[in-house]
Amino acid sequence: MGTDTTIAIERTKTPSTPPTTLEFQDICYQVRHKDGQNKQLLNSVSGAFHSGRLAGILGPSGAGKSTLLNILSGFKTNNVSGNILINGTPIDRRKYRREVSYTPQDICLLGNITVTESLEFAADLKLSPTTTTAKKSAMVVDVLKLLGLSKCAHNPVANISGGEKKRLSIGLELISNPSIMFFDEPTSGLDIIAAMQVVAHLKDLAASGRCVICVIHQPSSSILQMFDDLFVLSEGHCLYRGPLDELVDTFKACGFECPNYYNRADFALEIASLKHEGNLLQLRERAKQQTIEAVGKKVVPNDGPNCGEKDAMLMPPGVVGDQENSTSSTSDRQYLTSEWGQFVTLTRRTMLCTFRDLQLTKMRLLAHLFVGLLIAVVFYDVGNDGSKMLSNASCLFFFLIFVFFANSMPLVMTFPLETSVFVRERMNNWYSLKAYYFSKLVADFPFLILGPSVFLAGAYYLTSQPMELDRIVMLWSICIFTSWIAQMTGLLAGSVLPLELSVFCVPCSVIPMLIFCGFFVRFREMFDFLIPFTYVAYFRYSFEGAMQAIYGFDRANLPCSGDFCYFSKVPKFLDSFDMLENTFVMDVCGLLGWIFALHVGLYASLAWRLKRTR
Known about the structure:
It comes from Anopheles melas. The chain is α/β, with parallel strands linked by helices. The protein has 22 helices and ten strands. The chain has helices at residues 3-12, 65-73, 93-99, 115-126, 133-146, 162-174, 192-207, 221-224, 247-253, 264-272, 280-295, 329-332, 339-356, 358-378, 389-427, 433-462, 469-496, 499-515, 531-534, 538-551, 570-576, 584-613, and strands spanning 21-32, 38-50, 54-58, 80-86, 89-90, 100-103, 180-184, 211-215, 229-234, 237-243. The strands form two sheets. Strands 6-7-8-3-9-10 form a six-stranded mixed sheet, sandwiched between helices. Strands 2-1-4-5 form a four-stranded antiparallel sheet, with helices on both faces. The protein starts with a helix and ends with a helix.
């Protein structure tokens, strides 16, 4: 590495940082299958990783590599038993999450902001408010140099290469200067050159005094040579733990002879996959003996449930380590930044991403303008003619239909990615769920109002709706509330369902709301047992509110351009839809009730996503 990189490392990790040893003892994890049977994924796995050494977890598919990494990083806590210690002291989970970072295999990043902006927002969220802007900027520049991202610093994240995205994901966690860093298959999806660059950067991070642990999948000989320690898993058992240089000799002592000029990683994987004859049980016992000799008297008795028992958990929180004995108020807080600071930063970031999103903002506004003019041309001058009142009712109905789908479907398409980013950042202790939730609502609100306003600006006048301020405001508010429900429906579906399923489910969920809104079938024509469903259909309140805004509140009879106008009297027209006059307030209350319920549902769905990852 060059001089600039060395300086960056020294700035990010001070030489006075004490060494860190991450120990884990008798880690067990089980899952329940659909048939009701429990499957043990990890069986009394023990080991230790040390700062200053790059460690790799190796094993075939299904061996438990990612599961072990998730448990050690604190991501997974349910159905887990065993002990995790730092420098011989049991962890306090809240403080532990501040000391570690976890980068998953599938990288989810916000593509509409630049590389520099991503690091700047990370610094604002993860660093103490007492850190000056100049110091934050210097740290961002150092991380860019350290990870070789200076040449793409001002490029949108969506336009950088896969290797650069991997390095950016490392930099985002490096901002908070964690002492322990976990990476799940950091080289997956990269060519050999990009993979070597990533591992070389991880090697530098370990050499600077951090504890760096990676899950690696079929590394080449050149990549494997960069690792200092290996931890080999097979069917949830540890086969080897120790220095890379001792791997071949250990296997040879147990009857597994590695051929000359053979990739040691491939050989270890073949043994773990039971493709070689030898004493596999002896390998397991040797790994256990190494653990006992390494830990010695420092082993903490595990009074929790044994492997295979139901609802096993990690032992109660203790202290993160010797460096965490501070009694200051800052060390007791889960986040260095206040929730208000998190809210402000997240709101700025969300608004910036939304403004730059072509599909979510610019195309959305153009669609509102274009479709508003199209509806105005088709339904031109129908709003003030007694012979065209049914056509005007159809016009109002199309107003609501378009406003709903134009504001729900773009979020269905874009929010699943943002939810994945939220889960990664939240689990890495960037911010609280509450701060993210309210920032999302506030940041999207201006666009929520702007779309329907642009739509109605032309359509209302050209369709000859009554030019009375109170009626304009009432119809506008109904469109805003309908757009609000649409937005919350899109967010809720995007947070719970995968993209391909949410695109299907949202339109399907609207069908019952349309059937029971009173436009297609009058309420008096329905079976009695179907009437209660009309009171839970939000499109009933939207359509009824729009009709009340235009025809309610004692509107005068409309002029008739034909020979005979059956609905020239307004009360008669409302009665044909089974509507009473002046129920606008009830309709608004019905829409607000739906908005409140969807807000609660969105918060619960995000909390459920976080819980499911554990």
